[in-house]
Design a protein that fits this description.
57% of the residues lie in helices and 17% in strands. It contains 10 helices and 10 strands. About 2% of the residues have low confidence.
């Protein structure tokens, strides 16, 4: 904010300086013109008073015609009067005096200490025009300065801010794993650094949480399987006791049968508790609730291009988004993006970098979102397991991961009423991951 305040203060100072400069320039022009005109008038009157002719009106006309060419070079054309007239002192017409203005100068002519008349110098006053031109010049310059300031703010502040404004939401929704490109601009450098640091921190925390979830589920699974065997044995013993198997005569005893039923009920309660624990552990891995709205398929394509074009260019991976249909769909835009993001991230990690393609289309059965890539293949006997939580295929030994990406994609697809499938395309020799949503 201090940087912005500095720019505003500088702009304010510029306009104050412009205003003061315009005032001083205008005042200087007026003072200079007034001084030159007064000098011309005084010298002319002195010449009239010393003129040998007794007819002062004739003298004024003669001297004016004689001196006018030299006045232009001495005082400037704008300070040369357009008319010089003499009014004798006995003339009762005072209209000329009453019409005196800044465009005329009236001087007294005297002879032997007696007033003989008045000389009136009439000017075509150009000072108003100069003031107007000066004012217009200042306004035009101010407009240019303001325009430059607005363009600067738009290019350096508003446009970068619009680009960055959606990034926190993407981080919150886990829609992006890409850093904001570093900027040389002075305004958002610290913000970009902080957001990238936050993204790394959240990504690291997310990995730790998923690792803990995996350990928790592994522990619960171990406990569940450890409990199942003894509980099953207890149920068998209860059933044997109920049937009278342990009596010498083999005849069931009512008291034993009642105890056996209670044991069986408790074993069933234990199994239900274990099942609930496993279900709760599985469901807590991915948090997602769909937000259904209407949008166009082209919005998905535009988002993918905006998010991945630059990244793929840096990675030197040919990337293509093929939008076959741009109809309106009623679903969760964020959920679809999360699924496709998982597919694309997997394609980057497990592909060979020769190509990654996205196909978006509407068919008779529903909507298809397919991500295809060349490279490492999923073994056919593992295809049905890859969407399980924490499962990692045999082709992922040297690739970092936790086995939850495709599980998350499958979980979201089910929430949206759809499904995810994978297959190897023999024609294109590419692995395809597809999100299928119903109409």
């Amino acid at each position: 904010m201090r940087k912005y305040s500095g720019k505003y203060i500088v702009t304010l100072i510029i306009f104050i300086c412009l205003g003061i400069g315009a005032f001083l320039a205008s005042d200087s022009i007026f003072e200079g013109d007034s001084g030159r005109r007064n000098t011309l008038a005084n010298r002319f009157v002195q010449q009239i008073e010393s003129y040998p002719s007794g007819d002062l009106e004739e003298a004024v006309a003669a001297l004016w015609a004689q001196e006018e060419p030299s006045w232009i070079s001495l005082y400037g054309k704008e300070n040369v009067p357009s008319d010089v007239s003499f009014i004798p002192s006995d003339n009762t017409d005072t209209r000329i005096l009453s019409s005196d203005s800044s465009g005329s100068i009236t001087c007294v002519v005297s002879h032997d200490n007696e007033v003989t008349g008045l000389v009136v110098f009439t000017f075509e006053d150009s000072r108003a025009l100069k003031s107007l031109l000066l004012t217009e010049g200042v306004l035009i310059f101010s407009f240019i300065v303001l325009t430059v300031c607005f363009i600067y703010i738009d290019r350096k502040v508003l446009l970068p801010f619009n680009t960055l404004s959606s990034y926190p939401e993407k981080i919150a929704r886990n829609e992006t794993g890409e850093h904001i490109p570093e900027s040389k601009g002075r305004y958002f450098g610290k913000y970009i650094w902080g957001m990238n640091m936050l993204s790394d921190r959240l990504s690291g925390d997310r990995k730790k949480l998923r690792a803990l979830e995996k350990e928790k589920q592994t522990l619960l699974s171990s406990i569940a399987h450890g409990i199942k065997t003894p509980v099953a044995n207890i149920r068998l013993y209860a059933q044997a006791l109920k049937s009278g198997l342990y009596r010498k005569d083999g005849t069931p005893d009512p008291d034993d049968a009642m105890v056996a039923e209670k044991i069986e009920k408790n074993t069933q309660d234990i199994e239900d508790i274990v099942k609930d624990l496993l279900n709760a552990a599985s469901q807590s891995i991915v948090e997602y609730e769909p937000s259904i709205e209407q949008f166009y398929l082209s919005e998905i394509g535009d988002w993918l291009k905006e998010e991945y074009d630059n990244r793929m260019s840096v990675l030197k991976i040919p990337f293509e988004v093929d939008l076959k249909s741009s109809v309106m769909i009623t679903s969760d835009r964020t959920g679809i993006i999360r699924v496709l993001t998982q597919f694309i991230e997997n394609a980057i990690k497990y592909g060979d970098g020769n190509r990654i393609g996205v196909l978006i289309d509407k068919t008779e059965e529903g909507y298809e979102f397919t991500v295809s890539n060349t490279g490492s293949l999923v073994p056919e006997n593992e295809e049905r397991y890859i969407f399980n939580s924490f499962y990692r295929g045999s082709n992922s030994e040297d690739v970092e991961g936790n086995g939850l990406g495709l599980y998350e994609a499958s979980f979201i697809a089910r929430k949206l009423g759809g499904s995810v499938v994978t297959r190897f395309n023999d024609r294109t020799k590419e692995t395809e991951f597809t999100l299928l949503l119903p109409l």
